[in-house]
Design brief:
Radius of gyration: 24 Å
Helix content: 40-55%
Largest sheet: 6 strands, antiparallel, barrel
Shape: elongated
Low-confidence stretches: none
Distance between the termini: 33 Å
Mean pLDDT: 95
């Protein structure tokens, strides 16, 4: 989907002065553009340059910033990289940032050895100090990448990190959450303030009632479109389905097709769905393995109509630039021996691709049954109370623990009592989203752009 592909605007800048040798600026522009394109290609991102702005393709004057902003908006640019190829134009940089209102990466190549006499080549680092100050005066939030060389490892790591931050910001600002049916009656914890989500963040909730989703499933079962048949085949390849009836598998595949169809129809970026009765009462199936497969297909689905859970999952998958699926788990039981470990469990909605190496995912009663793989894990939970919103963020590592049913892992933290206290006292519940990898830093900085509190443990 369009919301999952980044468009990076690259606007190199130089100062309007003859104090620097311009051939250095032009060569640096070429090197930076090549390097950014190479990094972007790895993640399927597009790069839009500012070559159109003048003969040099460099932002120099405030009028250049206005021209660039106009074209970048037309190209639907999601984030800005403003390399200072010499001192840079701080006024134009700040104006472009203010006009675009997008994440901005401030960086410039490390200066070369100064000459013994004559004009210096660049003075880039000096200009970065100036631009940082003016961006602050213009109320433009920005990300800073330390002054380094284009071929330094920290440049590649810094641009990649900025892309992840930008992916989170884009995903959050374009949230359209499909709500299937209503929350379970006793689940007061998944109540949300729909108006606040729209007023503060522009998030939209698209309500889809019980009858619409079930009529769509019925139509699909009757027509059996090619995509449904592909989903059915994929389920049989991903799971050991020997304990399942063919008819039930067909209904799960039809349910998935219905979600995908409604996502396209209503432009939904994720779903929060009732799961206890909506599908069992009409079709005799539980939706858990189907939800898992949809997440595997990059359509996050939160069970039990957990809208904030769906938002949390979107933020995590965006932090991973949509290259790996997240999963939504219950925080359930402290480890019987390890005081810093907790059981992350749910009845079966984790994507099959997250199964532990050597374990074949089983599907029983429409539920996925398998232990999750080992590795580093980032967790987060979006929550709000009394008009204030925050994102709980933490990192841990899987550890050994007693086996159980459903989908599960034992997560070891640095200090579980601190986590537990924060989760209970904060505006959070027992649901938490998780993604393999280390993304706490990018989630924390993304919160600066989003206007929510980063609640990191």
């Amino acid at each position: 989907m369009h919301t999952k592909q980044l468009v990076i605007g690259l606007a190199p800048t130089r100062r309007d002065t003859k104090d620097f040798e311009l051939e250095y600026a032009h060569e640096r522009k070429r090197q930076v553009e090549e390097a950014v394109r190479r990094i972007a290609e790895r993640f399927g991102a597009n790069v839009v340059t500012a070559d159109f702005v003048n003969e040099e393709g460099l932002m120099i004057f405030p009028s250049d910033a206005k021209k660039i902003a106009k074209v970048f908006r037309e190209k639907e640019v999601d984030a800005l990289i403003v390399p200072h190829v010499n001192f840079g134009a701080e006024e134009a940089t700040a104006l472009l940032g203010r006009l675009m209102g997008k994440p901005l990466l401030l960086w410039g190549p490390r200066d070369e050895r100064p000459p013994e006499c004559g004009p210096r080549q660049t003075d880039t680092q000096c200009g970065l100090f100036a631009s940082g100050m003016i961006l602050d005066h213009y109320n433009v939030p920005y990300t800073y990448l330390e002054n380094c060389r284009v071929n330094d490892p920290q440049f590649t790591a810094g641009v990649e990190r900025f892309m992840r931050i930008s992916g989170i910001v884009k995903a959050f600002r374009s949230l359209r959450i499909g709500q299937i049916s209503v929350r379970p009656r006793t689940f007061l914890t998944v109540k949300v303030n729909e108006n606040e989500l729209t007023e503060q963040f522009g998030a939209e909730i698209v309500t889809i009632d019980y009858t619409e989703i079930n009529m769509e499933i019925g139509r699909i079962l009757k027509e059996r479109p090619a995509r449904m048949e592909g989903i059915l085949s994929g389920l049989k390849q991903a799971y050991d389905t020997s304990a399942m009836e063919e008819e039930a598998l067909e209904k799960i595949a039809a349910m998935e097709e219905a979600f995908l169809t409604l996502a396209e129809k209503y432009e939904c970026s994720c779903f929060a769905s009732e799961c206890w009765r909506t599908f069992s009462s009409s079709y005799g199936i539980m939706p858990c393995a189907g939800f898992a497969d949809l997440i595997q297909r990059n359509l996050p689905v939160a069970c039990e109509c957990d809208i904030h859970g769906a938002i949390s999952s979107v933020l995590l998958q965006a932090a991973g630039l949509w290259q790996a699926p997240s999963f939504l788990a219950d925080l359930t039981i402290r480890h019987p021996e390890n005081d810093n470990a907790e059981l992350l469990w749910h009845c079966g909605p984790a994507p099959s691709g997250l199964a532990k190496q050597g374990v074949t995912p089983r599907m029983e009663n429409c539920l996925g049954q398998f232990v999750l793989k080992d590795g580093d894990v980032t967790v987060c939970r979006f929550g709000g109370s009394h008009g204030k919103y925050s994102l709980f963020i933490g990192e841990g590592h899987t550890t050994d623990g007693p086996p159980t049913n459903g989908n599960y892992m034992w997560l070891e933290t640095n200090d579980w009592p601190v986590w537990e206290r924060r989760l209970v006292k904060g505006p959070y519940i027992h649901h938490i989203s998780a993604l393999y990898g280390s993304y706490a830093d990018v989630l924390e900085e993304a919160c600066e752009y989003l206007g929510i509190c980063a609640d990191r443990v």
